[in-house]
């Protein structure tokens, strides 16, 4: 690996396999929630291992502008948040800038919509402005919120807080962001809310609220938050991000001779779909995963031990998609180097991520010699086996997960890969390249 001009970087196959032990950065989803629910808390909230990356720093900046005081501790990622309480966010002169962070935009709007008599504007970068916001605007309007959106469904969003009504909302998409938005709005309104999920999605909001003493319950597919006046999050320790770990899992599986250990990784079952898919493809992965269906206020962690493994194709159906949503680009890469066909269905949500990840992944990996094609709701990969990826050049399109996918593809290729726009990785994993160098010198 060596740096090239600008933000383009080359990633070549390492001489030996990947080896070593790594602690991946803190979980992005849990960090967003720690900052937001910390800002809503009445007492001080101590956070250990907060993720400092572009997305989650945008969340800290946002809650500070809204009135929360954030003190940094001596250790990296250590914070104390003095929140403003459920009803205390202050009005601002200009818009709240969410940057590239969909989670921040969609969770924050739920909180602000429930503040009668106050108004805010939420805006973000070009990617955020192209992503669907109708999915949060719609249920909030049903609760009585007043929200103006560009073309009625895109950012910027102008939010006029109102006294909201309770809701029992069947989610039209299996989205943790929409689920969290409605639950937070129901909590901040003091009225409560229920959502019904078409398929399970990540449940960090529910677990954190349960830990904060909020009256939250799951009954089958329905999640309900009851009436509550105040929350108190207390202490939060953010575990390592399994979505960041997944890049090293994939690299170790694909590069012959590899064995890596990833410490302190969150293995909440609503996040480990990729590990189960990889195991179905033949991956050898050590570590104790949380059993499916578990619901506890604590976030489970384990050390993952991953060794190079011969892989074969698999099929991923819609029910599994939300549990592996951010790792599906890696399933495509594993599929290219596996034997046989890999099919992903029911993943149309990939089209509205930081980029259209069906198009960017299929075009990107095809340009490197992969044999795959896009479908409306996923992709079909014809695996050509180990050593079948030539290499070449891939663009990140400003999408952090595409940038890191390109780097891993380079390690697993014959001729190496140049990634244009590698800097996008900083959205979730600023130290990605140096961590990769540490295990694949
Ligand atoms: C996230 C939920 C997922 C995921 C995103 C983070 C979250 O999005 O893709 O990276 O933190 O709630 P959706 O809820 O839109 O599926």
Write up what this structure looks like.
It is a single chain. By secondary structure, this protein is α/β, with parallel strands linked by helices. 30% of the residues lie in helices and 24% in strands. The protein contains 13 helices and 24 strands. It has a four-stranded mixed beta sheet with strand order 1-2-24-23. A four-stranded mixed beta sheet has the order 3-16-18-17. The longest helix has 14 residues, at 176-189. The chain is globular. Mean pLDDT is 97; it is low at 1-5. Bound molecules: shikimate-3-phosphate (S3P).
List the helices and strands and how they pair.
Layout: E1 2-3, E2 9-11, E3 19-23, H1 28-40, E4 45-48, H2 54-65, E5 69-72, E6 79-82, E7 96-97, H3 102-112, E8 119-123, H4 126-129, H5 134-142, E9 146-150, E10 154-160, E11 168-170, H6 176-189, E12 193-196, H7 204-211, E13 216-219, E14 222-225, E15 235-237, H8 242-254, E16 259-266, H9 273-280, E17 284-286, E18 301-307, E19 315-316, H10 328-337, E20 339-344, H11 357-367, E21 372-375, E22 378-384, E23 392-395, H12 400-411, E24 417-420, H13 432-439
Parallel strand pairs: 3-16, 4-15, 7-8, 11-12, 19-20, 23-24
Antiparallel strand pairs: 1-2, 2-24, 4-6, 5-6, 8-10, 9-10, 12-14, 13-14, 16-18, 17-18, 20-22, 21-22
Helix pairs in contact: 1-2, 1-3, 1-7, 3-6, 5-6, 8-10, 8-12, 10-11
The protein binds shikimate-3-phosphate.
């Amino acid at each position: 690996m060596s740096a090239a001009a600008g933000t383009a970087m080359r990633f070549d196959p390492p001489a030996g396999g990947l080896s070593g032990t790594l602690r991946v950065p803190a979980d992005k989803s849990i960090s967003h929630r720690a900052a937001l629910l910390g800002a809503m808390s009445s007492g001080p909230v101590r956070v250990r291992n907060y993720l400092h990356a572009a997305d989650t720093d945008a969340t800290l900046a946002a809650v500070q502008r809204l009135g929360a005081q954030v003190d940094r501790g001596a250790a990296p990622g250590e914070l104390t948040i003095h929140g403003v309480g459920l009803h205390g966010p202050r009005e601002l002169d200009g818009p709240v800038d969410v940057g590239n962070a969909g989670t921040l935009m969609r969770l924050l709007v739920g909180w602000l919509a429930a503040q009668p008599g106050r108004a805010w504007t939420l805006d973000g970068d070009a990617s955020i402005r192209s992503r669907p916001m109708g999915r949060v605007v719609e249920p909030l309007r049903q609760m009585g919120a007043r929200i103006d959106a560009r073309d009625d469904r895109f950012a910027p969003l102008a939010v006029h807080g109102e006294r909201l009504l309770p809701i029992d909302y069947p989610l039209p998409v299996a989205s943790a962001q929409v689920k969290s938005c409605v639950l937070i709005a129901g909590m901040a309104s003091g009225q409560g809310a229920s959502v019904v999920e078409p398929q399970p999605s990540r449940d960090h909001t529910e677990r954190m609220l349960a830990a904060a003493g909020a009256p939250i319950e799951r009954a089958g597919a329905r999640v309900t938050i009851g009436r509550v006046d105040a929350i108190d999050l207390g202490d939060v320790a953010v575990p390592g991000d399994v979505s960041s770990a997944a890049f090293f899992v994939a690299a170790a599986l694909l590069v012959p001779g590899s064995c890596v250990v990833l410490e302190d990784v969150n293995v909440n079952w609503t996040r480990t779909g990729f590990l189960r898919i990889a195991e179905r493809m033949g991956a050898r992965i050590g570590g104790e995963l949380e059993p499916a269906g578990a619901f506890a206020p604590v976030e489970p962690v384990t050390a993952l031990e991953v060794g190079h493994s011969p892989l074969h194709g698999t099929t991923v159906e819609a029910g599994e998609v939300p549990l592996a949503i951010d790792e599906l680009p890696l399933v495509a890469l594993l599929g290219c180097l596996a034997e046989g066909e890999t099919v992903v269905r029911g993943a149309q949500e990939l089209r509205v991520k930081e980029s259209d990840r069906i198009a960017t992944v299929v075009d990107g990996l095809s340009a490197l010699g992969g044999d795959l094609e896009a479908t409306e709701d996923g992709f079909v990969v014809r695996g050509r086996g180990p050593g079948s990826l030539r290499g070449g050049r891939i663009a990140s399109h400003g999408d952090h997960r595409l940038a890191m996918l390109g780097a891993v593809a380079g390690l697993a290729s014959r001729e190496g890969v140049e990634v244009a726009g590698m800097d996008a990785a900083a959205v979730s994993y600023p130290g990605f390249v140096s961590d990769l160098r540490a295990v694949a010198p």
